[in-house]
Amino acid sequence: MTRHILSYFGIMGRAEPIRLTFVQAQLPFTNKAVEFAEFTELKPSLPCGQLPVLEIEDEETGSKTMMDQSNAIMRYVGKLGGLYPSDPVEALEVDLVIDTVEEAYKFLGYTLTGPKGIFFSEDTLSDQEKIDIRKKLMDPAIPRNVAYFLSVLEKRLDENKSGWFVGDNVTIADIRAHQIVSWLTGGFLDGIPTNCMDTYPLLKALHDKIEALPEIAAFRSKYGKKYTTFDYTPPGSKED
Q1: CA-CA distance, 18 to 28, in Å (whole number)?
Q2: Nearest Cα residue to 181 out of 138, 214, 139, 133
Q3: Which of 94, 120, 125, 140 is the most exposed place for a label (fewest CB within 10 A)?
Q4: Is the pTM value of this prediction over 0.85?
Q5: DSSP character for 50?
Q6: pLDDT (tens digit per residue) in 142-199
Q7: Which of 61, 65, 66 is nearest to 50 (CA)?
């Protein structure tokens, strides 16, 4: 028997696509909420000094393996739960979507950390600088910004016609894209209006479609969007 322990802060963030992949695949896992104050002490023990991490525990032998990198973890869980295609071409299409989301994500991440988080600099961004940069990132008239990569994703959805990125069913590509839409519309980023996805109706509809999936809707109803430590057991299982 294998146990999965997902550690991250008690927010949606980078771990949310992993959580929702576990939930949609109906796989049990432990969600371990890490306090921000705990992170400093925990950091040296982490493979890359960052969260999320997934511990894979063999309950028979007690051995544990700790894995990091959120997209790699999501792919692993997706493979376990049938949400990552076995067909090589479809798997490539899923990976293309995930990488396109990352292209947009890296710009937004810069507005949180500033030069200090990327260029080994002590410089930070003022609140106004963050707002000014974010407005430019969402301006469709400016090339190769967040708006550009959102338009690429919107086009991919339009081309597939099913409402999902790949094939006729939900995959981890959809769950990964859902997360960035949640972030952009959640009111967390000053300078980006919560109605910013009105320009991208297919992405907006995809986000709502993910939230309406019965498994995910039930998870939301029980746990909300601010997390504590808990053991998730799929509804209807023997342990539920």
Answers
A1: 12
A2: 138
A3: 120
A4: yes
A5: -
A6: 999 999 999 999 999 999 999 999 999 999 999 999 999 999 999 999 999 999 999 9
A7: 66
